[in-house]
Design goal:
The complex is a heterodimer of chains A (114) and B (233). Chain A has helices at residues 2-11, 58-62; strands spanning 44-57, 69-75, 80-84, 87-97, 100-108. In chain A, 13% of the residues lie in helices and 40% in strands. Chain A is elongated. Chain A is mainly β and 114 residues long. Chain A has one domain: SpoA-like (Surface presentation of antigens (SPOA)), CATH 2.30.330. Chain A has a four-stranded antiparallel beta sheet. In chain A, strand 4 (87-97) and strand 5 form a beta hairpin. Chain B contains five helices and eleven strands; from the N terminus they run H-E-E-E-H-E-H-E-E-H-E-H-E-E-E-E. In chain B, helix 1 packs antiparallel against helix 2. Chains A and B meet through strand 1, helix 2, strand 2, strand 3 and strand 4 of A and strand 7, helix 5, strand 8, strand 10 and strand 11 of B. Strand 1 of chain A pairs antiparallel with strand 7 of chain B.
Chain lengths: 114, 233
Amino acid sequence: MNNQTNRAEAKQVTQVIELPEIKPHPVPGKPVVEGNLAMLQSVKVRLRAVAGEATMTVGELMALREDAVVALDRALNEPLDLLLDGQVVARGQLVAVGDEFGIRITEVSRVAQP
Amino acid sequence: MRVRPYVLVGAGAIQSAIAGARAAVDAWRETWGFEDDAQVSCIRASEADSLHGPGWRAWHKDGVPGAWVRLAPDEAAAPGSIAHAVAERARRDLVASLAAAFGARADGEFAAEPIPHEARAVGAGMIVIRVAWPGAAIEMLVASAPPANGPAQHRSAPIAPAEAIRGATVRLSAEVGQVEIDLRALRALAPGDVIRLGRSLDEPLTLVAPGGDTVCHGHLGASAGRRALDVVP
């Protein structure tokens, strides 16, 4: 039945759509977004909290065994990094929230603020 | 599909080929007591017009052509004479010395054989060495990159990729946790805010490779005034 309807519609006038050529405007218009990320408010981002980093050779990595101690490049009193796509967007102190690790923010990027 | 290496002959390769040929000629000249009147030159096979001429013969070994040789004039003296025999031996000796200098097989047989087109192509890595005296010349078409120690070069076996990158450094990060928030919350983030990181206090942290893969886990602790991970199974 539905198929027949489709055929009936197909018998009506159909035309190929031709798209008009868009010419570049000589004068640039006003910025559309203008640094306003309001429409991206709901975008989810994944943040990683990193306690420090360790640099080693692949050889050392392959020789790594259980119970080994891997020293990180951070002093005990240094903050954690909060990374977005590999870049630090905030820093904070490692805390316990109930029985869970948490970070108490101490520093945020100034530029990203509205 | 046929695949062959693309080898360009640089000016340095030409110079070292001339030096190699010169050394071979000098050694041969002293052996035979000839005067030092030989001119040694070298050009890329792709630029050698003489390759289109007649008289080229392939130096075969086990059915594989290793070098092509052209002697001019083709006969040094009247066939059958002692002079002819000596000249022929001397020429063969020089051809063998030159071939050896370029790592070509030098103990086979001559055979008339056309030079294949590939050997003359740009990127074939072939060169033409020319040793000329007044009234005579030897030309030889050989590969430009002679093995450093002659044909019996020792190559070390390829090593496993895991071995080859042993010396490379990697930067691992000790991840306490990950949290997903929307941009609105991120932009509203202010000092004093606390974010739960979704990892229990008795859980080990994750040591993460640059690509994001987990290397291992370890409990967070202190070592010599710094944070450290105690690696767990």
